[in-house]
Amino acid sequence: MKYLNERFNIIKCLEENMNNSDRERKEKITEIMNTKMMIHNMGVTVDEFNTIFGKSMFFSVMFSIIDIVYNTYLGFFYTIFYDDESRKIYTLFGTGLWITVITVSIILISVAGEGLANEARKTPVICYVLLSDIPGIPKTDYQRLLKEELLLIAKQANTRKLCISAAGFFEINLGTIGFILASVISNIIVAIQFIPDKEDMKKLVATKNT
Question: Quick one: pLDDT at residue 18?
Answer without folding.
Answer: 47
